[in-house]
Sequence to fold (228 residues):
Amino acid sequence: MNDAVFLITGASSGIGQATARQAAAAGYRLALLARSTDKLAQLAAELGGPERARAITCDVTEWEQVEHAVETTLRAFGRIDVAFANAGFGAARGFLNESPEHWRSMILTNVYGAALTIRATVSALEATRGHLLITGSVAGHVNIEGSVYSATKHAVGAMAESARKELHERGIRVTLISPGNVDTPFFENTPPVHLTGDDVARAVMFAVSQPPGVGINEILMRHPDQAI
Fold:
């Protein structure tokens, strides 16, 4: 994998950071995207510096920034083999418990940001017959009381299937990664039963390591003791 390139949004922490580490260990060069510049720079330095990992500040809700990040990746590395639309965050349950501004930012990041990531990377992925991954959630399979976040992940699940149906003609595989509770900064308080970021990253790497004739359309995963 010495030449292959793995682009990750939301790469500065949690699932994105864990995936970056495992992808680097597998030999990928990395384009690490997030709004948190300091954390990204530290991670990129740790994973090999400019020759192996580039930190690119990017707000996935801004088309110009996503487009620029992809262009920067292509100038640096010449290709994109895997794009992981992972950026996202949650909100407190209840229709009276978060500000409308928080909802707006979350919906834009989780849904619109994933759509922009797809749009910006399709041409590069077509050139490499690459792989698109999107972070969904168990919350996209069940209706959680008072959860606008859950609604965004239902939308992301539909988007992934729509992308799969369109992009297979371009030779691009699409995988939806849908974890349950994960011990990441996503939660203010760690859930009593949870996966780790490394657990989810292993699922990502499993999906991208399949031979060309195998498409893993979705990985739905929970801690065995998670009831919902």
